[in-house]
Amino acid sequence: xxxxxxxxxxxxxxxxxxxxxxxxxxxxxxxxxxxxxxxxxxxxxxxxxxxxxxxxxxxxxxxxxxxxxxxxxxxxxxxxxxxxxxxxxxxxxxxxxxxxxxxxxxxxxxxxxxxxxxxxxxxxxxxxxxxxxxxxxxxxxxxxxxxxxxxxxxxxxxxxxxxxxxxxxxxxxxxxxxxxxxxxxxxxxxxxxxxxxxxxxxxxxxxxxxxxxxxxxxxxxxxxxxxxxxxxxxxxxxxxxxxxxxxxxxxxxxxxxxxxxxxxxxxxxxxxxxxxxxxxxxxxxxxxxxxxxxxxxxxxxxxxxxxxxxxxxxxxxxxxxxxxxxxxxxxxxxxxxxxxxxxxxxxxxxxxxxxxxxxxxxxxxxxxxxxxxxxxxxxxxxxxxxxxxxxxxxxxxxx
Length: 399
Ligand code: ATP
Ligand code: MG
Description:
Elements: H1 2-5, E1 14-20, H2 30-44, E2 51-56, E3 59-64, H3 71-78, E4 84-93, H4 97-107, H5 109-114, E5 117-124, H6 133-147, E6 152-153, E7 160-166, E8 171-174, E9 178-179, E10 191-195, H7 201-211, E11 215-222, H8 229-246, E12 250-255, H9 257-266, H10 272-291, E13 296-297, H11 310-317, E14 324-325, H12 333-343, H13 346-349, H14 371-378, H15 383-392, E15 395-398
Helix pairs in contact: 4-6, 7-8, 7-12, 9-10, 10-11, 10-15
This protein binds adenosine-5'-triphosphate and magnesium ion.
């Protein structure tokens, strides 16, 4: 393989190595998973310089093809790539034991100097390599101990582990790998439309479904002038904060004022929120049809508010035939907040702008609605007309 892939020698270069997660288990589908992840990696590395990306023996190699490649930025971006269980920066050297020692000595010098104890862990993906893994670890460990004689060897709790991997076209040395983003490569599970409000829950829900391999498009319902342009910008900012994980996103901004005013005028107040949410589902379904998406995602959590009881969810999802994914349904607010902090959406989510759901909130919302009473409340509405009008007014923003 070396010749077809390497016009220039990989020896001496610093690589980024990605280890794949669950996808390795998927047998026959594995190639498709790898291809998807590599495609996502390629798009994610745009602007960091030219890289060559290829997979071999369940490792994906990210090889810089210019001295100007920004390895720090590349590594940081790949930390958000779903489908990767762990990743590391690694130095490639030729497959002689002395070269491996030399590479470890120079590449890991600072870390070896800072540590008090260490061990060497070797893997041989190249089974023709002359030493066994144990022999190689002992050899490299012995040599490094001579060179850094403040270090003690500690097989059980070393401060630092020097990893050596003998692979097909080179050997690699690296320090402990960093945990990857986990999950499945975005897009492998198809496409869904996520209902993104400006709150804490829906960005987390979107992130969780992207992590399970869904490519997303966002829908946001916007009730100008009841909600401000800042509220819309906030949602676009939230979508942007998700792009390191989801890739670039389309946000469909749907004008929702007309529907809300109609519902307030002509329907029982206690059902207002539920009727409104049914319109959200119907419109999201139409957006999904246009986008080739086969599911919807919301940030609903059981019992969190009146419109999120089991009965309320039942009448809400009865408005669509698409599956509705609610990944935070069983999570407490605190647990959702923890994820929001981790993915960096929390601070934006708590900015104090109105959401369309807080406009015309009923004083006594119905928590145990039946589909019959909801449908009765809708009989006099021009549902198709209202939806068509909202669809016509959609503004499509790419973030
Ligand atoms: P969030 O924190 O995500 O705003 P929430 O607890 O405030 O959720 P609701 O306001 O009842 O809950 O909304 C429930 C879900 O409906 C949201 O998580 C989101 O998926 C969707 N949703 C609510 N408002 C909007 C909106 N303006 N545009 C798009 N989706 C919305
Ligand atoms: Mg909300």
